[in-house]
Give the backbone structure.
Amino acid sequence: MKQQAVAIRPGWVIEFKGKAWTVLKAVHIKPGKGGAFMQVEMKSVEEGTKTNERFRSEDTIEKLMVEVKDAQFLYEDATGLTFMENETFEQFVMPSDILGDSRPFLTDGMEVHIDFIDGKPVSVELPLQVVCEVVETEPVIKGQTVSSSYKPAILDNGVRTTVPPFVGTGDKIVVSTADASYVERAK
């Protein structure tokens, strides 16, 4: 299925140079001069090699038709990440690096979508947003309002991000799994 390059998301399986590739990271970049583009880190489904490619915003890519199954993450060990398919309760293992930089957001019991090609699991798609707790950040300054300045923070899964000034240690926030960016305070 043809898709605009700007729509590429981590977890997709796309065709590039005649091969199937799993998207590990996709960043939309708008330089000051020239056209916008997508910087995409991909891993070959067959060979396991990685590559970085740039796609112009107006480019189209072929998103491969895959069988999507819901699964639950069970645990990680030396062999990789173990998942259980929700319908058949079959367990299968995938490589630990399949999620790239999004790996810290995968938690025990999390429901995910797994893409299968010819019965073989090839990619994991996490929920778009997850709730995390801020374990370390600068203290809240009384009377400080929302502004465009953000401060660094460390989340309970070890990920570093930036948060608005009013967010303090112990607060729960919603974070995007694609780029670890702050979305909003958790309700």
The chain has a mean pLDDT of 87.
